[in-house]
Amino acid sequence: MHSETPYEITPATRYGDPYYRPTGARQPVILPAEVPPGVDWVTLPSGVRTLAYTQPMPPPPIPVSQPIPAWAKTTALLAPTVGGGIAAAGIGLSYAAPGLIAMSHALWSAAALIVAAVTAVPVLIRTARRATGSGSASGSTTHITQNITATGLFGRANGTINHH
Q1: Angstrom distance (rounded) from CA 14 to CA 20
Q2: Prediction pTM value
Q3: How far apart are CA 117 and CA 132, in angstroms?
Q4: What letter would DSSP give residue 15?
Q5: Using CA atoms, how far apart are residues 50 and 35, in angstroms rounded to an integer?
Q6: Disulfide-capable partner of 148 in 61, 118, 159, 160 (CB 3.0 to 4.6 Å)?
Q7: Is-contact 141 159, C-beta < 8 A?
């Protein structure tokens, strides 16, 4: 059974053979000083170490000092001032406490004197009128009677005054 075909079927090449293990070829040794820039030793996921092109690492950012905000400066300057003012007020109150207590007693005494005067003056005036005889005993008391009438809630009011 010989047929005439224009081409020949050949077996698979040795690179397609799954059992082919090439013998280790001697690779040239590169010293670390000879490694060009941008190339570095890397370890592959299979564990093999090899040379590869690498991305250059960017330099670490230089920390830049930030200016202090104006509100922070104002608060920092204001805090000791307010604290000192509160301390001075506390010291001043401690020195003034005896005087403030005495002033409080004096104010209560003045208030009691005013209340006594408001109630005593009308009593003294009434007593003086009775003593001089200008009261009802002389018959010179005047009585005034006033009558006011109005129609409706917002109506105009009319009034009469009677002297007796």
Answers
A1: 7
A2: 0.28
A3: 22
A4: T
A5: 12
A6: 159
A7: no
